[in-house]
Design goal:
Layout: H1 2-19, E1 42-49, E2 58-64, E3 70-72, H2 78-85, H3 94-102, H4 104-117, E4 125-129, H5 135-140, E5 148-153, H6 157-163, E6 170-172, H7 175-178, E7 186-192, H8 201-211, E8 212-223, H9 228-233, E9 247-248, H10 251-260, E10 263-269, H11 278-290, H12 304-335, E11 343-350
Parallel strand pairs: 4-5, 4-7, 5-6, 7-8
Antiparallel strand pairs: 1-2, 2-3, 3-9, 8-11, 10-11
Keywords: Membrane, Methyltransferase, Transferase, Transmembrane, Transmembrane helix
Protein name: Class I SAM-dependent methyltransferase
GO molecular function: methyltransferase activity
Length: about 350
């Protein structure tokens, strides 16, 4: 605990210097048209803040009236993305994120995804895009011990995944830049909750096709912007996940785009892709609005009384969080079979011609 506090104190100066001029410089100019279909008519979907790390800034999601694509507008610049991603998957947040992906729920979900693919192909060489620390390949290997799993990610976590044996080969960088070097190499490419983080999903899908051999399969799971849970919970809906999620693609849009790229969609479903966390996360976000601030380097250090009050209130809220999580699990069989499902899965085969 003392070491963690010291790390926060060391980082506070650099964060405060970055924030001295505000957050406006982290954004690009606002778009006047849809990045998916180029339609000119947009409407505001929601306005929100960073409800996970509580970094400063306000974020807007717009929806295209023509195709239903939802996207961050104005979008973060690369400098802004670097700022808001920092200390989430690495640094201060590395341990918390690792626990999330190593939990039984994540492992079970990963293995469901593998089983969904097996009726269509038994992969020999699989590339997991956005693999981070390689938790998906490590889980999938238990079902497919003969399959070679490689991983791709921008961060150094992919190199650690290779050193720890979770993947065979690490590719550090962007798929759009590396795809030509791995053309026709893989018979499966997976993108688990990856596309929504990307600047240009069109280019990412084209790059995935390049990396796949003819007859290979692309496996995609993403948040569903048409979910009724998103409408009901508004900016408390976890999958909006601002500011990291930049694009939200309706299911029909993705299937049409894949078909245009030379894929045949062999499966598209919402049921098995649902992640039962909507209510517990919404409850935590609500608490975040009333709790005293946490000790984080992008804000002034709270006083001793505020820290004690936060600790006491968090413990007092545990029964409510457990009840919300219990409700997520109890309702899961119903929600995952309805339009309240919060995600969808698409499996597409690259055509041979």
């Amino acid at each position: 605990m003392a070491a963690h506090s010291e790390q926060i104190a060391r980082l506070r100066t650099s964060y405060q210097e970055e924030l001295a001029d505000g957050t406006d410089r982290f954004f690009l100019p606002r778009r006047t048209g849809c990045p998916w279909c180029l339609g000119p008519e947009l409407r505001v979907k929601l306005r929100t803040v960073d409800q996970v790390q509580r970094k400063p800034g306000r974020f807007v999601l717009d929806e295209c009236v023509s195709c239903g694509h939802v996207f961050q507008n104005p979008r973060l610049s690369q400098e802004g993305l670097d700022f808001y991603y920092r200390d989430f998957y690495d640094g201060l947040g590395a341990e918390t994120t690792a626990r999330m992906f190593e939990g039984r729920g994540s492992v079970r979900r990963f293995q469901h995804s593998v089983r969904a693919l097996l009726p269509h192909i038994r992969p020999h060489r699989w590339l997991d895009v956005g693999t981070a620390h390689g938790h998906f390949p490590a889980s999938a290997k238990k079902l497919l011990p003969q399959t070679r799993f490689d991983g791709l990610d921008m961060g150094e976590s992919v190199l650690l995944a290779e050193r720890q044996g979770r993947i065979t080969e690490a590719h550090q960088g962007q798929l759009t830049e590396l795809a030509d070097t791995m053309a026709d190499r893989y018979d499966t490419v997976s993108m688990f909750h990856y596309l929504e983080h990307t600047l240009d999903p069109h280019s990412e899908l084209a790059a995935a096709r390049t990396a796949l051999r003819p007859g290979g399969h692309l496996l995609i799971e993403v948040p569903d912007p048409e979910s009724l849970s998103g409408r009901l919970l508004g900016n408390l809906w976890m999958p909006w996940f601002q500011p990291q999620h930049l694009n939200f693609i309706p299911l029909s849009n993705l299937c049409d785009r894949l078909t245009g790229l030379g894929f045949t969609v062999v499966a598209a479903e919402r049921t098995d892709a649902h992640i039962p966390v909507d209510l517990v996360c919404a409850t935590w976000f609500l608490l975040g609005r009333v709790l005293p601030p946490d000790d984080v380097p992008w804000a002034n250090r709270p006083g001793r009384a505020a820290r004690a009050a936060r600790w006491a209130l968090v413990w007092a809220a545990v029964p409510f969080l457990l009840a919300a999580y219990g409700a997520d699990l109890l309702l899961n069989p119903l929600l995952r079979r309805s339009r309240f499902s919060n995600a969808y899965r698409v499996i597409a085969r690259r055509d041979t011609h």
